[in-house]
Amino acid sequence: MESSSSITPLLFRNLITSLFLLAENSICSLAQKHKALELIRCVFVSSFLFFLRLLLSLNPRSTNNNESPYSILYDYNDKPPKKGIGRRKYMPPANSGDDDGSGSDTAIARALSQLLSIVNNIPVSSRKYQGVRSLAENVIYDNQREGVEALRQVNRTVLSAAFSRTLSQLEAAATLEQQQGGGDGDIDGLDSGHHHWIVRAVRSVAGVVWTKGVSSGGSRSSAEKLAAELLWLAETMAACGFAKESVRRWASASSLARLSLSAEPRLQASLVKISALLLKYAKDMGVDEDDDNESTKEQQERKQAKMQMQMLVLWIPLLCTASNGTDVPVLSISERAELERVLEETIEKLAEEDQERVLSLWLHQFTYCSSSDWPNLHASYARWCNASRKHLLIHNS
Q1: What is the DSSP-derived secondary structure letter of residue 88?
Q2: Cβ distance 365 to 397 under 8 Å?
Q3: How far apart are the first and last CA of the chain?
Q4: Which of 35, 38, 198, 331 lies in disulfide reach of 335, CB 3.0 to 4.6 Å?
Q5: CB-based contacts of 281: which residues, under 8 Å, 6+ apart?
Q6: For residues 298-312, average pLDDT
Q7: Which helix (H) or strand (E) holds 240?
């Protein structure tokens, strides 16, 4: 995933920097007694800084200043391919590359995938952003309006891939923003004394390596922008009848759910909106009524219950701890009341053990967060207590 590849440079940077500072500190203490060691220390420091600079050359996409930001999609230096040969080099794949016969690897699918990729990459401030996004919406709705199953599958496959890609980029961007805002941990404590200039040099050079490494991994856009696009994709998928695809992916975004608890208030606001929308979709999902196989229906019900359980466990902490908003509340009073009803109805559908787990998690987050009194699930908690009490009485009678 892009998020894991983006975190790797950070771990590598911290490991190398910590080893360097440890070795430099030892050599510096000895250099005060032996002038020859002072020369060795200077060579050691210079070599280390050169090594950090050399890391930039390991990523051609970061160091090639003449390369277009969209060269990962196109190769304009090559001649156009002959008909039927090499078309995929000029269009991004609509999925993982496997064509399942549903039209997901057709020209219209690759065109839609290209549009959605560009929406991710260009800034909102660009005058062409809204134009590209409107063009993507037109392609999606035109496919849907045709009423042909093959075009519906094109929308499903491409939108699902775009949602997964944007989610991965959002995780990487949120990780980067927290890293930049949180400092360098133990390294900050060493920014004093005789080697403070070395710490600043290491932080400056290593920061360039880290930032460029993450940018090449697909997190050039801000986390807030990616969250807004993720909300747009979720709404679009629901309008096309593919809400389950977005719910399934949101229910497995455990890394982002963990990062959201310490994210900036504006990003938290966007994530609350996405969670509120997808929790509603999760509650309304049902099994396929056209399937007469009872075992298949039961299996679908179990998977649906598991997905709803994951949604609640991952995102209730954010709902309890997120800020109400910087300028205006994230959700209106009516939207908050509606989401509370959604949560209560979803919890009541779960098994008794799962209800206990969800409500215990909610109670912990709700009581320990003094700045928020929402969502209020006291009624749902009381009903579960009554049901558990009756179950115990029946068992002992």
Answers
A1: G
A2: no
A3: 54
A4: 331
A5: 234, 238, 243, 244, 246, 247
A6: 90
A7: none
